[in-house]
Design goal:
The protein is an alpha/beta fold. It has 2 domains: 107 residues, Urease, subunit C, domain 1 (Roll), CATH 2.30.40; 321 residues, TIM Barrel. 38% of the residues lie in helices and 21% in strands. Helix 4 links the parallel strand 8 and strand 9. The protein is globular, with a radius of gyration of 21 Å. The relative contact order is 0.15. It binds N-carbamimidoyl-L-glutamic acid and zinc ion. N-carbamimidoyl-L-glutamic acid binds next to loops.
């Protein structure tokens, strides 16, 4: 455990807004123990002249998919879609070992840190070997995710995923899906087995149901009645129009409608994507308190559609952002695309600003911080006493950042400079990114390159 430390921050984004000359005291356990104003430099105190903002939580990830990012941008012989991308993804699954998963996840997490994220929620469904062959340790691949997060130095919420069927009505899984499949009891045993390891590394344990396609209502109810994680509950829902059609054919109801009718959806839940909703579903999802888990770059890449964010926010809906398939890995790209989707649909500007005169960047950033922390099952968010010390320092040597003040800083970062602006990242009081480089970048890249050479 490290010693406690004090940082004098010249410009810092606190929950109440931008503040100057704040001394942040970080306790030995990596949480923020004090925040006080001080203008005269105190000797022996590290001073940060450049803007400091909280690191965001990334609320949705399938880490292994980073290995194929950019390789599915190739026209096939059929009409390419989400479903043809999914076939390519299944082919990757069939070729990855636990070592590969750990190496790819470590690389991904180091990239996400450089993109301004301090915490990852891993929606982990890749449990078994090809054909569904079990590893000696049922938690083998989950342990690889835990180790990757620890190695990269990113905070983790681990969500082992229940996945049992190919489609609505409990249909048999396909061959490519065998590495994902559990029975209910086997799944509950996995959650129990992971408790001590998650506690030991300070990871939050929660659960996920892959989708209404992959689990029957009875299986979902059995899991919810028996699980004891106390953590967040995530589910993919209504991402593709075909899922809406299939759900209607099966139940007479749309996916979000069905979920809200049949399951005890609350603040504890996170609805991933929720792209295709009627205005009534949008209002109901917002009122349920569930976080909408938006992954704008993946949703664009896979041709999903545009989330009704302006409508959802008008009903006080809470949202956060994730990078999902990791076609993009930065806070800036996800937040920018979220706003741009709304603009392209409405043919208007500044759609997600909180009101007249408000900064779009600030509104998006504050919202994603609140929703991200909630969806990750963290007790606190942002730079406040008791929260984990997860900080991003933006690069004041960058002329756009160095000349900006207050919310202009977020506007310049998120809309104009992107990832160049992130200089240093601290997680739980430890600097994991310095000068734009991850602390173990060379070793991580060496291992990752070997895996890609073999898989690609
Ligand atoms: C997944 N990914 O589970 O990785 C999904 C595709 C599915 C995204 N939706 C598979 N981005 O939903 O069946
Ligand atoms: Zn997903």
């Amino acid at each position: 455990m490290m010693a406690s430390q004090k940082l004098l921050c010249k410009q810092i984004l606190l929950p109440q807004g931008w503040a100057s000359d704040i001394v942040v005291t970080i306790a030995a356990d990596g949480t923020i123990a004090g925040l006080e104003t001080k203008s005269d430099a105190v000797s022996h105190m590290a001073e940060i002249a450049d803007p400091v903002v909280p690191a965001l939580q990334n609320l949705h990830s399938h880490a292994f998919q980073r290995a194929m990012a950019g390789l599915a941008e190739l026209a096939g012989s059929t009409d390419d879609s989400f479903w043809t991308w999914r076939d390519a993804m299944y082919r990757l699954v069939g070729r990855m070992s636990p070592d590969d998963i750990e190496i790819v996840a470590t690389k991904l997490y180091s990239e996400l840190l450089k993109g301004g994220f301090g915490h990852i929620v891993e929606f982990h469904y890749f449990h078994h070997a090809a054909g569904g062959r079990r590893y000696a340790n049922p938690a083998e691949t989950s342990m690889r995710i835990l180790r990757a997060a620890q190695g990269a130095g990113i905070g983790l919420t681990h969500l082992p995923v229940f996945y049992a069927h190919a489609g609505f009505g409990g249909t048999e899984p396909g061959e490519g899906q065998r590495p994902f499949i559990h029975g209910v009891d086997e799944y509950l045993a996995l959650l129990d087995a992971l408790r001590p390891d998650c506690d030991a590394m300070g990871a939050t344990l929660g659960l996920a149901i892959h989708s209404l396609r992959a689990a029957t209502p009875d299986e979902m109810r059995a899991i919810l009645a028996a699980e004891t994680t106390g953590g967040p509950i995530h589910i993919h829902v209504a991402e593709q129009e075909r899922e809406v059609e299939d759900c209607l054919a099966w139940s007479g109801r749309r996916p979000v409608e069905y979920l809200l009718d049949e399951m005890p959806v609350s603040e504890r839940w996170c609805a991933i994507h929720a792209t295709h909703m009627t205005t009534d579903e949008t209002a109901r999802l917002a009122r349920s308190g569930a976080v909408a888990g938006l992954c704008p770059a993946t949703e664009a890449n896979l041709g999903d559609g545009i989330f009704p964010a302006t409508d959802f926010v008008s009903h006080a809906g809470v949202f956060g952002i994730g990078t999902d398939s990791h076609i993009a890995t930065t806070v800036a790209e996800e937040l920018r695309l979220l706003e741009y989707g709304q603009r392209l649909r409405d043919r208007r500007r500044n759609r997600l600003a909180s009101g007249p005169g408000a900064s779009v960047g600030r509104t998006l950033f504050d919202a994603a911080l609140k929703g991200g922390a909630e969806a990750a099952g963290l007790r606190s968010n942002g730079i406040r006493i008791g929260a984990r010390a997860d900080l991003v320092v933006l690069d004041g040597n960058n002329p756009f950042i160095g000349t900006a003040t207050g919310d202009q800083i977020l506007g310049r970062w998120l809309f104009a400079t992107g990832n160049d602006a992130v200089r240093d990242v601290m997680v739980a009081g430890q600097w994991v990114v310095r000068g734009g480089h991850h602390r173990d970048e060379e070793a991580i890249d060496r291992d990752f390159r070997k895996v890609l050479q073999r898989l690609a």
